[in-house]
UniProtKB/TrEMBL annotation, chains A, B, C:
Pathway: Pyrimidine metabolism; UMP biosynthesis via de novo pathway; (S)-dihydroorotate from bicarbonate: step 2/3
Source organism, top-level taxon: Bacteria
Gene3D superfamilies recorded: Aspartate/ornithine carbamoyltransferase
Reaction equations catalysed: carbamoyl phosphate + L-aspartate = N-carbamoyl-L-aspartate + phosphate + H(+)
Domain Aspartate/ornithine carbamoyltransferase Asp/Orn-binding: 146-286
InterPro entries the record matches: Asp/Orn_carbamoyltranf_P-bd, Asp/Orn_carbamoylTrfase, Asp/Orn_carbamoylTrfase_sf, Asp_carbamoyltransf, Asp_carbamoyltransf_Asp/Orn-bd
Identification of the protein by name: Aspartate carbamoyltransferase
Aspartate/ornithine carbamoyltransferase carbamoyl-P binding domain boundaries: 2-140
Positions that bind L-aspartate: 77, 160, 208
Gene from which this protein is expressed: pyrB
Gene Ontology BP terms: 'de novo' pyrimidine nucleobase biosynthetic process; 'de novo' UMP biosynthetic process; amino acid metabolic process
Enzyme class: transferase
Protein EC: 2.1.3.2
Sample GO molecular function, one term: aspartate carbamoyltransferase activity
């Protein structure tokens, strides 16, 4: 594939190709291209795990990485993102990994540029590399998506993870339900309750409560959220033996999930992070292979 | 050469050597020294393209690069630049690339230090690596400098690009004219008008309007500047077929140049950026060769 | 050793092992592990030389280094240090070098994690890699520690260098005295005066006056400190011929030491910085060897 922008663009066979390649990287993470490729990670929003995960994947692939600090860049001088990326292309950069607060930031980069764009999170839009690593983690556990019952819990309306994952999981044959406060339901229909979900869920996918996006006027009460929508110790005890718990991290301990459960038996939270490196190696390889 | 500080220090043969070596790097960019050299890019002012360009050149030369973040460095603890650079020398750094807001910042580094200094922009002083890549781009186009008519347009008084380029181009036999608002003329004489220049210019070299240096009291009106001093679509149409348009970037679209012209046929703006990597490889090699 | 947290944990033979290995690195700095290790330098406080020194040591050891910018990381989203480091472990990081303003920050990292922790300065606690490079510098000069008279001058109470060094030097048989303003004496006993120390000191170890820690209410007078506690030109003249002067840097010129003396014959200030790279190579190798 030429770019990775959103999950809508990927067909089932594209997803399968990436997940299969990620498995090969997990089994043998060393890899070198015949050509020396150069990438830049343009993170205009704070991030530890996504940026670090891409950085690790890039090093394992033997890529050159030019550092970019959003805080001291020419975008401070009012440069457009197109001009910044066009400049990187002229310098000889082959691919850029971008996180930006603007939805579909990549639209303005779709014409006139000859480098690969990987979306690492666009505003309240999508987060396709997170989605693919979530899919990888589910397939690793269950070997398939058909008939798997996935419950997504939290701020569905504003979450780029929820959007990407719900779309892809349905396409792949999974049964997706949602639990969320009414004000965070957005365009999603069919919400459930913990009571309905607990006996049947194969995957409980918790979303991060994004305090920094909602602002203070939201009058958010952490304890209340945990009690109503969080994975409490009591709810955890009612899950099926085979059920797994996922979260894109960083976790708000005792909000989305009880602190004691973050590294519990059913938790795949750090497994997801580990898988992310292999999935991102597969993504990067896929877009760079087109440029050999 | 031991350092690259300003264009005054370079004789014509030094310039020729760098331009010729840059051409070799363009034809074959792979290169390794017998010794492992280490460099640091000390950018005390925001920059994307110059810093990225040096970073790319350094990677293509196989150098080790130690990251430096001006915002979290010991200069915050009141350390002098001499002590910072002397420290880097003790750590084992072979060359430093420095951008700093102070004119001739390098003067205090000229005694007692045994590492190479490359000036990547000193205050309102010079910007020699930009000058050399501009020269490279002109030579690439015309094969010579003698008799070439170069018009430099904009804030001549405060531009380090204007100073470096005017000096070098005259030394190399080019004919240099200026177009600028009267208040930005500085010590430069002989200003022209667009009407005089349009029929004869071989190179139209636009300077960036540095809003961040002039401040708000300048009461700068972008539309007015564009109308009086910018390369408008009407003026572009009157240029000779062989004329090229240059700009050090980042461009203020519709100020120095009409947005539609940034990637027009005559524009060499992104070509300049591309050439910058090869020229900087030649500069770095030149100062490091002295340390083999 | 598995981690390097503080000097209390190291026995004399552990110190000897590191100093001997550092000497080997000084003689032959090239080294490659059979395995590709990855490290992250987590500096939550400003630093140039310690961070740069670790970065250089890591490159000389052929390690992969993932960049971490405290200012844009997920700790801004309220993530605990445990979760940040646990995330890095999941990504595949083998060792983290941490500087943090909190004393004994590493306590919360001691269970549940499987990567090596190197303390690069904890609050007003310790700074063990600085201590080891100071020991290396003293041994380089005198070949031994027994009977060596070391005078530590400055803010003993708040200095992590003073704490680490006094502890280790006494353990190794050196004679340690202190000169300090009464309000900065802390729990240390036995303070001396310059008059007592000048005829006998083998090592004068100056501490940095940490303006940024004391704040303005301290009403610190630089000239007064220099006159009472600084190494003035007059005091320097009274030192024994074999005496050396040390300082962890960055130096406040004309406060702890007269500016003219920073690079004087007896000064080992930049030698310490140079030695730091070899000592840190030995530290990193020591913790990574356990993970082969």
């Amino acid at each position: 594939m030429k770019h990775l922008l959103n999950m809508n663009d990927l067909e089932i066979k594209d997803i399968d190709t990436i997940l299969n390649r990620a498995l090969e990287f997990q089994q043998n993470p060393s890899h070198q291209f015949n050509k020396q490729f150069t990438v830049v990670n343009l993170f205009f929003e704070p991030s530890t795990r996504t940026k670090m995960s891409f950085e690790m994947a890039e090093r394992k692939l033997g890529l050159h990485i030019l550092p970019f600090e959003a805080g001291t860049s020419s975008t401070l001088k009012g440069e457009t993102m197109y001009d910044t990326v066009r400049t990187l292309e002229a310098i000889g950069v082959d691919a850029v990994v971008i996180r930006h607060e603007q939805d579909q930031f990549y639209e303005e980069l779709m014409s006139g540029l000859n480098l690969a764009i990987i979306n690492a999170g666009d505003g309240s839009g999508q987060h396709p590399s997170q989605c693919l690593l979530d899919l990888y983690t589910i397939k690793q556990e269950f070997g398939k998506f058909e008939g798997i019952h996935v419950t997504i819990v939290g701020d569905i309306a504003h979450s780029r993870v929820a959007k990407s994952n719900a779309l892809a999981l349905k396409k792949l044959g999974a049964h997706v339900t949602f639990i969320c406060p009414p004000e965070w339901q957005g365009d999603f229909d069919a919400t459930s309750t913990w009571e309905e979900v607990l006996p049947t869920a194969d995957v409980v996918m918790l979303l991060r409560v994004q305090h920094e996006r909602h602002g203070k006027e939201n009058d958010f009460l952490k304890e209340l959220y945990h009690k109503e929508y969080g994975l409490t110790i009591a709810r955890y005890a009612e899950l099926k033996p085979s059920t797994i718990v996922m979260h894109p991290a960083p976790v708000n301990r005792d909000v989305e999930i009880a602190s004691e459960l973050v590294e519990s038996d059913k938790s795949r939270i750090f497994k997801q992070i580990q898988n992310g490196v292999f999935v991102r190696m597969a993504i990067l390889e896929s877009v760079l292979k087109e440029r050999m």
